[in-house]
Every structure is written in C-alpha cells, then in structure tokens.
C-alpha cells in the first residue's frame, strides 16, 4: 500500500482554499444562492460539515455510523437536504467553526487509522485514503458552487487528479445508475492536467477514447457543468454516451446543470 499522506495533505489544502473564500463573508454573503437548486453558500458548507462528521463516525465509531445510515434510510429522498438545512440555519460563525472543528478531527482520525483498515460508508467499505479522496472530491465540487455563486475564479490545481481518478473508476457505476449495461471494453482517457502533464488511464490502444482538459472532466463527473460547455472529445458510441451520464458520486443520477451556451465552462476557472 502506498503512503496515503499526499491525499490527506491535498484534502487539507482543498478545504483551506474553500475556507479562505467564506471566512470573510458577512451574513448576507452566506445567504447567496449557489447553482445547486435551493442551496445557499451556507447550505454548501453545512453539507460538507455534515458529511465530514459522517466520515468521522465511520472511522471512529462504527455503531454510531450504522445508526446514522439507518436514519438516512428512513428518509432516502431528503436526508441530505435535511442535514444541509439544519446546518444552514446556524449563525455563520457557528457553522464555520463546526466545519473547521469537524474537518480537523477527521484529518487527525484518517492519519491515525491503522494500516489496511477499511471503514463503512454509504457504499462499499473504504480505506482511509479512499475516504480522504471522496472528501476531497466533495470539497472541490461544493467549493466550485460557492466560487461560482460569489463570482470568484479558483485556479485549477493538480489536486484534481484525485477527482479525475474517481471519475474514471466510476464509469461502470454511472452506466448502472442509468439502468444501462456497462461496456465490456476499457476506454482510454487522456486529460491535460493544470500543470501541463498528461494524465492517462486505460489501454493505449483502446478503440474508444475520451480526451480533453482535466478540469473539464472533473466538472463533468461532479456535474458542475454541462457537457456542451466543456472541451471534451469522445471517440466511440459508448464513450460518447458516457459523457452524457458520467458521475463520480454515489447514489442516483443527479439533475446535472443546464448548458450555458457561452463558451467552455473551463474558461475563467483555469
């Protein structure tokens, strides 16, 4: 098993970048609507605080996490929004402190996790590194909603490699979530990283391929932008279909975002 420290460090850095965006907001700023329907900036941070707490319980108290899952199963269509609503109702300073305390505790728990340990989650059990990767993906995606709401440009970083990797690995899940049989063949995915490197996945000689910017791919698989607004290219019918349904998150397919039709979504975010 490789050293998981880099992903822990990247999660911390991603969280601190988002913290910098919201720390100086006055109360009206926390009420700013984000691209997610019905969610304000406060809802976005409340959701991250809620899921960080869930992850902390998964790592440190399996029984308490099981109780949380049972509670979620009683309201599968609303438990995510309910958690966000509860946190968003707090005074901004209290919500910010809750998020900071929770993510700090999770960081410590993940770093202290025994080698090879796996923890329960809403899907398959996860290692500490996988848990951190999932938290980084959510932090980046919800942070993008906050940045878009505030009109702030966030430079893309190579921390996106974690998001891209989840997106590639979740290909078959995305097909299954839409009631489709996953393709039997692997795809080649080639992404231009923010640093200028090339991130490549799958066989070099694969007949079906996806190419484009890593930022665009990450916006796609987290459903933060519509495919029509991204500079991604698919070769092959199944690869083309994947770009219509891709998702890197667990659960049912999301609503996605409507196309803006005003150039590529990567512009102003690179």
Question: Can you describe this structure?
Answer:
The chain is an alpha+beta fold. The chain folds into two domains: 5-150, Four Helix Bundle (Hemerythrin (Met), subunit A), CATH 1.20.120; 160-245, Nonspecific Lipid-transfer Protein, Chain A (2-Layer Sandwich), CATH 3.30.1050. The chain contains eleven helices and six strands. The strands form two sheets. A four-stranded mixed sheet has the order 4-3-5-6. A two-stranded antiparallel sheet has the order 1-2. A hairpin with a 5-residue loop joins strand 3 and strand 4. The two termini are 33 Å apart.
Topology:
Layout (H helix, E strand, L loop, with lengths): L4 H18 L4 H4 L10 H20 L1 H13 L4 H10 L3 H21 L5 E2 L6 E2 H23 L9 H10 L1 H7 L10 E5 L5 E4 L7 E5 H8 L10 E4 L1 H9 L25
Parallel strand pairs: 3-5
Antiparallel strand pairs: 1-2, 3-4, 5-6
Secondary structure: helix percent = 40-55%
Number of domains: 2
What is the gyration radius calculated from CA atoms?
18 Å
Assembly type of the chains comes to single chain
Strand content: 5-15%
CATH T-level topology of the largest domain: Four Helix Bundle (Hemerythrin (Met), subunit A)
Summarize the helix and strand pattern as letters: HHHHHHEEHHHEEEHEH
> What would CATH call the homologous superfamily of the largest domain?
dinb family like domain
- List the total number of helices: 11
Mean pLDDT: 93
Strand order across the largest sheet: 4-3-5-6
Segments where pLDDT lies below 50 for 5+ residues? none
SS content category: alpha+beta
Q: Biggest sheet, open or closed, and with what strands and sense?
A: 4 strands, mixed
CATH domain class of the largest domain: Mainly Alpha
> How far is the N terminus from the C terminus?
33 Å
Backbone shape: globular
Number of extended strands: 6
Q: Based on the structure given, which CATH architecture of the largest domain is correct?
A: Up-down Bundle
């Amino acid at each position: 098993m490789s050293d998981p420290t880099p992903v822990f460090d990247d999660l911390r850095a991603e969280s601190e970048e988002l913290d910098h965006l919201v720390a100086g907001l006055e109360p009206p700023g926390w009420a700013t609507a984000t691209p997610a329907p019905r969610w304000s900036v406060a809802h976005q941070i409340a959701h991250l605080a809620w899921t960080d707490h869930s992850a902390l319980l998964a790592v440190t108290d399996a029984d308490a996490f099981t109780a949380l899952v049972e509670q979620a199963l009683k309201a599968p269509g609303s438990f995510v929004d309910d958690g966000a609503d509860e946190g968003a109702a707090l005074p901004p300073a209290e919500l910010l402190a809750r998020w900071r305390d929770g993510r700090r505790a999770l960081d410590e728990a993940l770093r202290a996790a025994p080698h090879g340990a796996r923890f329960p989650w809403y899907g398959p059990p996860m290692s500490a590194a996988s848990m951190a990767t999932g938290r980084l993906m959510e932090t980046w995606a919800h942070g993008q909603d906050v940045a878009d709401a505030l009109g702030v440009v966030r430079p893309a970083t190579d921390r996106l490699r974690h998001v891209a990797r989840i997106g590639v690995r979740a290909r078959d899940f995305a097909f299954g979530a839409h009631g489709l049989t996953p393709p039997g063949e692997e795809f080649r995915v080639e992404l231009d990283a923010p640093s200028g490197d090339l991130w490549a996945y799958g066989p070099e000689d694969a007949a079906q391929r996806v190419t484009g910017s890593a930022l665009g791919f990450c916006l796609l698989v987290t459903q933060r932008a519509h495919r029509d607004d991204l500079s991604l290219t698919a070769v092959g019918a199944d690869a083309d279909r994947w770009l219509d349904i891709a998702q890197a998150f667990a659960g049912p397919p999301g609503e996605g975002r409507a196309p803006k039709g005003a150039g590529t979504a990567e512009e102003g975010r690179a």
